[in-house]
Write a sequence for this structure.
């Protein structure tokens, strides 16, 4: 029914186009004008005029036909996360829009710049419970950075332009443009601009040099400081500045899940990931720090655990571009509202003009701190479980790291495999790690990898997913096959909804309620049915060769890796507790 | 703690629901809300009375300020300000003692009679929320049939003196 065209036509479409463009053409030209050459979508009745223009402009804009609208939005997210550019998805009204909601919410939680165009029933039919009508504006209201219901074709061009500015500026986010069908058919002679007083403007206040002086003094005099860095480092492209600051000061750095890649994991100053499944050293260091220097983070509950005892002895300095993040969960002692890159850059300049002797004295202050940190590192490092008989999930990630020379872009779903990938794949560069952090969307990985691979044809992109999440969006394998995208999917198959099972084991007395996925399709045959290469690894001895075979194959590949069934992610800080309650084994 | 927040928002369809939606999505309470045009024809001012601790109010202000079509958000209550609410009250007031009693309350509170029948009167009353509350409370023994209240509107004082709201109200009115 989705594609059935039953919407009453209030406009006729002139196929021999007159001079002035119709709405649909303005829309597609608007996308092209804003630098879009790739979009993901699925047509339907309300967007037929737009698809007619997509056809006409097919040399300038490549549309990838997904098989479910959730896939379109996740693919657009993967594209955006891999590049920092605005991702674009196009879906029809009603179910097209509601299917897109999960992806929009996902982008909202992780501050990913998207423009999602949704078709809408003709203006005159809005509110009549028309076929495939849903109040998309209302449904998406709490999960968008901004949204539009276009009521006049003259506004369309201004809407598209502004949407791209809003999506990408400041703290990025998804923007929804709901376009009634008649608007896309109407001829527009005289497009109009938004009134100047309404038009969105990105206001970036310059960083106050006095603030920089204050934070540099704090950093120089701290005895037990830690950099706690998040997705803001990646978004603002501040990895190099962060590296400079950390190296100049010799201060340890711990990234959040979203901050992975923002600081090289293998660097001697890196403590590894912070939070619920973070390293012992990172969590202990934050617990005992006297200065917590938080950049581009939001003190998320998966990082802080119990707020009252998070970094209890630390003076907290919080730098974030979003004023509402300051003091939302944890009140800082000092804060700067600004782009992470500009602040770190200013700190670098200040440090570079600082006396060498002063820097050396500062390093000396922290010798005891580093001793402590190294003890934590040595006493409880992350342990890669080994076995001769079965593939341990951690072994899989380490093997993947080895085979890809640590260079692949890793995209994950949500659950145990996500945490193991975060722990055991040392990341080297920004945007190398693409994951659904805030919303925790199972089914994200596969379509996001598709988008990421299209955005970065120069890189090997590998999706690591669980057997649960894989089955939520595996229909997009055919999208990869159709367009010859070398999508690589590794299914970490333990026959369970693994993370839920782990919690049931640890906190619900091993009552494994509805987590058994041992009855699953044959993923190899499934891959073959889609026309992709399907491979399976069951024994440690064959893991390396099968991974290599799959990754070397020029087309879409699904590798089903059967791993030990009841492995747990450690360390774990139980929800709502603090680092002292960390369970290490 | 009760707080009044004043939001300058573009008069565009859907923008008000964005504000209201933000309040419910983030678990903030709306006690009253009133919206009207400002001097600039394309901008409306929404005055929202909410409650919450200092931190909640700070978050409300910051969250509202993030909206693309919101130009200004102020926690009016944190500075000297004037607040007014209007109420229309339908009260039973039969000729005789009852009506006399209503009229004496109307005089005391400087309310207005805006409609009358043999049985009932409609009164118009404006003042601080406390004053409106008190007026309605005093009318209750006479049987109040219906009340509609506008919700608060507020504006910051011109004078820098932090004179208390009640002091001024008392001096000028009751």
């Amino acid at each position: 029914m989705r594609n059935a065209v039953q919407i009453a036509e209030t406009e006729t479409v002139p196929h021999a186009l007159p001079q002035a463009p119709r709405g649909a053409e303005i829309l597609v030209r608007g996308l092209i004008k804003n630098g879009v050459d790739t979009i993901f979508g699925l047509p339907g009745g309300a967007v037929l005029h737009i698809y007619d223009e997509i056809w006409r402009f097919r040399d300038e804009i490549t549309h990838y036909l997904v098989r479910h609208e959730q896939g379109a939005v996740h693919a657009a997210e993967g594209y955006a996360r891999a590049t920092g550019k605005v991702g674009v998805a196009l879906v029809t009204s009603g179910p097209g829009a509601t299917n897109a909601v999960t992806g929009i919410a996902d982008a909202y939680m992780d501050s990913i710049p998207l423009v999602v165009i949704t078709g809408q029933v003709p203006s005159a039919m809005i509110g009549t419970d028309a076929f495939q009508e849903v109040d998309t504006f209302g449904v998406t209201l709490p999960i968008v950075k901004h949204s539009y219901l276009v009521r006049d074709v003259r506004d369309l061009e201004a809407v598209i332009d502004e949407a791209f500015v809003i999506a990408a500026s400041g703290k990025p986010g998804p923007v929804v443009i709901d376009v009634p069908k008649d608007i896309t058919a109407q001829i527009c002679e005289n497009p109009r601009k938004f009134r100047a007083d309404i038009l969105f403007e990105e206001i970036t206040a310059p960083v106050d040099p006095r603030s920089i002086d204050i934070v540099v003094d704090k950093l120089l005099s701290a005895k037990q400081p830690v950099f706690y860095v998040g997705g803001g480092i990646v978004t603002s492209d501040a990895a190099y500045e962060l590296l400079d600051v950390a190296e100049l000061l010799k201060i340890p750095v711990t990234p959040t899940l979203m901050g992975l890649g923002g600081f090289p994991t293998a660097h001697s100053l890196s403590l590894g990931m912070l939070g619920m499944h973070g390293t012992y050293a990172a969590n202990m260091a934050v617990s005992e720090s006297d200065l917590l220097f938080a950049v581009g983070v939001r003190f998320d509950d998966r990082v802080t655990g119990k707020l009252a005892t998070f970094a209890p002895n630390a003076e907290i300095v919080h730098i974030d571009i979003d004023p509402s993040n300051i003091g939302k969960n944890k009140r800082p002692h000092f804060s700067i509202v600004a782009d992470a890159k500009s602040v770190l850059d200013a700190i670098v300049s200040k440090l570079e003009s600082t006396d060498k002797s002063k820097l050396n004295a500062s390093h000396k202050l922290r010798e005891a701190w580093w001793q402590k940190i190294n003890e934590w590192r040595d006493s409880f490092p992350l342990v890669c479980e080994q076995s001769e008989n079965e593939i341990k999930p951690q072994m899989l990630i380490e093997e993947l790291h080895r085979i890809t020379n640590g260079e692949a872009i890793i995209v994950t779903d949500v659950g145990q495999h996500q945490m193991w990938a975060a722990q055991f794949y040392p990341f080297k560069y920004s945007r190398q790690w693409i994951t659904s952090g805030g919303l925790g969307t199972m089914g994200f990985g596969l379509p996001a990898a598709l988008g990421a691979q299209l955005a970065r044809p120069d890189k090997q992109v590998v999706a690591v997913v669980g057997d649960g999440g894989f089955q939520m969006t595996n229909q997009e394998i055919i999208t990869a096959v159709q367009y010859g995208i070398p999508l690589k999917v590794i299914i970490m198959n333990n026959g369970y909804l693994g993370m839920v099972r782990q919690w049931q084991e640890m906190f619900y007395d091993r009552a494994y309620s509805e987590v058994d996925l041992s009855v699953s399709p044959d993923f190899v045959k499934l891959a073959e049915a889609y026309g992709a290469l399907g491979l399976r690894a069951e024994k440690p001895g064959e893991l390396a060769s099968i991974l290599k075979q799959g990754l070397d194959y020029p087309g879409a590949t699904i590798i089903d890796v059967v791993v030990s069934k009841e492995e747990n992610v450690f360390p774990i800080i139980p929800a709502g507790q603090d680092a002292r309650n960390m369970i290490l084994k | 703690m009760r707080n009044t927040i004043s939001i300058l928002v573009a008069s565009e369809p859907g923008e008000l629901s964005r504000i209201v939606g933000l309040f419910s999505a983030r678990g903030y309470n709306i006690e009253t809300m009133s919206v009207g045009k400002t001097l600039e024809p394309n901008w409306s001012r929404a005055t929202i009375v909410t409650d919450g601790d200092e931190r909640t109010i700070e978050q409300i202000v910051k969250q509202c300020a993030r909206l693309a079509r919101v130009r200004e958000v102020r926690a009016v209550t944190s500075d000297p300000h004037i607040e007014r609410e209007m109420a229309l009250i339908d009260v039973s007031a039969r000729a005789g003692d009852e009506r006399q009693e209503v009229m004496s309350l109307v005089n005391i509170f400087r309310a207005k009679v805006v409609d009358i029948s043999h049985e009932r009167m409609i009164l118009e009353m404006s003042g601080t929320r406390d004053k409106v509350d008190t007026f309605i409370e005093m009318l209750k023994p006479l049987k109040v049939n219906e009340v509609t209240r506008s919700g608060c509107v507020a504006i910051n004082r011109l004078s820098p003196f932090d004179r208390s709201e009640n002091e001024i109200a008392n001096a000028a009115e009751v």
Observations:
- The first strand of chain A starts at residue 38 and ends at 42.
- The CA atoms of residues 149 and 178 of chain A lie 5 Å apart.
- The longest helix of chain A spans residues 69-83.
